[in-house]
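This part of the workshop introduces the protein records we will be handling. Getting from the letters to the tokens is the skill we practise here. An example says more than a description, so a record of this kind follows:
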Amino acid sequence: MSRLVIRGGRAVTAAGAAAVDIEVTDGTISAIGPGVGSAREEIDATGLHVLPGGIDSHVHFNEPGHADWETIANGCAALAAGGYSAFVDMPLNSLPVTIDGESFDAKVKALSASSSLDFGLWGGLVPGNLDQLEALHARGALGFKAFMCASGLDQFPACDDRALLEGMRRIAALGSILLLHAEDPHVVDALTREAIAEGRTAARDFIRSRPAAAELDAISRAIHFSGEAGCPIHIVHVSTVEGVRRILEARAQGTDVSGETCPHYLLYTEDELEPLGGLGKCAPPFRTGADREGLWAMIAGGSLDMIVSDHSPSSPELKRGEDFFKLWGGISGCQSTRQLLLHGALMRSIDVSVIAAATATNVARRFGLARKGEIALGCDADLWLVDLSHESAVRTEDLLYLHPVSAHVGQPIRGRTVRTLVRGATVFAEGRAVAGTAGRQLTRTP
């Protein structure tokens, strides 16, 4: 048996933070407590916090098909540098998009060859692929993703109400979950056409074309369909306080619905999109200062309990141009998520355990990732050793993406990654990714 002991760190567990040793046997946490037995390999974590390895359930790594935008290897290195040990890849931006068994197999092959972290995959729900959902589920899709408005890719069209409702019924029968990009296409399409026809194509015009009302209407419709179909749903990248409230109200009434937000909605307001330019374009767009601070208050209070990156890079030239509507929409940022959140949280007196749960434990629990997301006996030894006394800023020269650009450059961060482990194996240490670990495909436990 392979045994490892991590000594003297302040581990963040469900019981709180405490200075304990963590014993790892064959990649699994086998003991937690003061003075656990000796092992051939020991790591001194004195002065460090030990958090469960993060799980980013919303990334676009673009392979196969768009390795010129981002590679799996670069994306994994960036995640590991930011304290992540696992991720779930979205079904679009790669080519082919992951909407049938053959495309799923191609993506699993690419991930198995290049991923140093454990990985899962979402399947796609689009009009016309209802007969493929069972095959995707059988191959290990953790759930499905659909757009209620245009996705930006012709290969991944939006679902109308009929396709959405029937898709939910079939996904419910599979015992799975549907993730939704919720913006009302009628509102967005009409306002977009009007702006372009009038030559209004600046950053502010883009924001006006995707108002908060479009997001809220879509969330409410999705919740209604979820209740009718009996299908668990998860609303991705919620940008407003009211959006979270509607999710919470529906959950209190018995609907199986959850939601997530992203660092960019906790950092930026609509006034900051123009200075950031294309690097800050995303959908939904940035909202008001009241939404930003309200989302932070919900995180502090525990009602908003999941934060993911929505890492969606492209080649840099797709983010440049005068017409904001033509620029690629997506923010490159998975490497910095936890450090940005720790800075914001500690500035607001939010405990580190809240960020650990929002970026690991709650993700694993919602999506059925057994043995992940917690420092507990029997769990995988996915661990982030971090020096929380370290304060810095996001720097271009530290970014490990294929294209080292990000809207977050210059933002203050808290925490220096000392080591990241996946099932007890080091994947990042001393400022660099460590080769030699092969990621495993994650499966869902209902």
Observations:
- The longest helix spans residues 212-229.
